[in-house]
Design brief:
alpha+beta, elongated, Immunoglobulin-like, five-stranded mixed sheet, about 375 residues, seven-stranded antiparallel sheet, 4 helices
Length: about 375
């Protein structure tokens, strides 16, 4: 005899199995539709029906050139034909600057100390590029160009205007810039000063797109410190990507506490060395007392060290690719026109790049025009 409870359980089990079959079927259908949808690519029916109309083909410098548009496109970009915005150089551009000179500029500041006439700015075309020791530097011919550049007189940086250094360029040879720092005996001349240099750049005298193109900036000049006596009287100079900091060697003053045997730092009973003392400093290391040697030639020497740039060539400049100017983006409305002003006379080949695109495909048309710009 079958009980009612057994019938209920059997019915519940059957309905549960039926539901699962239906659910799995719907899931399979959904997955199939999803896969089908993913495989279907979003296409582009046609290239843009885009065109550009000019009222005339000749304009003057400073005059607005009106480009009137017809049709539509998803995106539009513009190449004026000028340097840095020329379609023909979209893969890269190297400027030939052989017939031009160069300028050098920087900013400088100074702090501390009292010594005068420590800094000289020099240029060389025959340095051998060996930064290992000062003798290599001394063997080169260096032209002192310090008179061209006023130096800072305080920690506030003083900017120099670009000064022409074309006379220092030798055809077929690189140029080096050097900054020489002299440290005089500090007991009688006062302590050495800290000199700082930044914003250094060498630019071409060529005038392109209303400016003189920068050939190398401070980071690219890649200055290195060359020491006279790195072991016995090292300077305290440093070079970063944005600043050169020059400071002479340490003056060993006999009155410094480091030469006083009664200085508490030499006392082994000093509580800073006692782990049980509240004054204990776990980083404190008791130094060995070394008496002052008045006959040591490194106490207060006259020294020099240099900061010297890498080899610089100024006859060619890699500008990288020319980039288009955006006119219309994907989400912006279609403009009726576009304007551009030329600052230099010449004949320019203009291109408008119009594209219809989706995530999967795009179709492009290029509209080309020739414009003459007169004075």
């Amino acid at each position: 005899m079958i009980r009612q409870s057994q019938i209920s359980i059997s019915k519940s089990y059957f309905m549960s199995g039926l539901y699962k079959k239906q659910y799995n079927g719907l899931l399979a259908l959904g997955v199939a539709l999803l896969i089908f949808g993913c495989e279907k690519k979003l296409g582009v029916d046609a290239a843009p029906n885009f065109d550009v109309i000019l009222q005339k083909s000749e304009y003057q410098v400073g005059e607005e050139v009106f480009f009137n548009f017809t049709g539509t496109a998803t995106t539009i970009s513009f190449y004026s034909g000028e340097i840095t915005n020329d379609y023909d150089h979209r893969e890269g551009r190297i400027l030939d600057l052989t017939d031009y000179g160069a300028t050098f500029s920087f900013s400088s500041g100074v702090t501390g100390g009292a010594q005068e006439d420590q800094i000289s700015i020099l240029a060389s075309s025959d340095f051998n590029g060996n930064y290992d020791n000062l003798s290599n530097v001394k063997q080169a011919t260096w032209k002192d160009i310090s008179a061209l550049f006023p130096l800072g007189i305080s920690p506030t940086f003083l900017n120099t205007t670009p000064q022409d250094i074309s006379r220092e360029l030798v055809e077929g040879k690189p140029l080096y810039i050097g900054i020489r720092y002299l440290t005089k005996p500090q007991k009688v001349n006062g302590l050495a000063r800290t000199w700082m240099f930044q914003d250094m750049q060498i630019a071409s005298t060529a005038f392109i797109n209303e400016s003189n193109p920068v050939i190398v900036n401070q980071t690219e000049l890649a200055f290195q410190i060359v020491e006279q006596d790195k072991e016995e009287a090292p300077s305290r100079s440093a070079v970063s990507g944005t600043r050169i900091t020059l400071l002479g060697n340490i003056y060993k003053d006999p009155n410094d506490l480091i030469y006083n045997p009664d200085n508490p730092i030499f006392d082994p009973e000093n509580p800073i060395y006692d782990p049980g003392s509240p004054e204990y400093d776990p980083n404190a290391i008791r130094p060995e007392y070394v008496p002052y040697d008045e006959n040591d030639p490194t106490n207060d020497p006259a020294t020099e060290h240099w900061a010297i740039s890498k080899a610089i060539t100024v006859d060619k400049l890699d500008l990288g690719p020319d980039w288009a100017q955006p006119v219309k983006g994907i989400r912006s409305t279609m403009p009726d026109s576009f304007t551009h002003i030329y600052s230099t006379p010449g004949t320019y080949k203009v291109r408008f790049i119009a594209t219809n695109s989706t995530i999967d495909k795009s179709r492009t048309v290029i509209k080309e025009l020739t414009i003459t710009i007169t004075e």
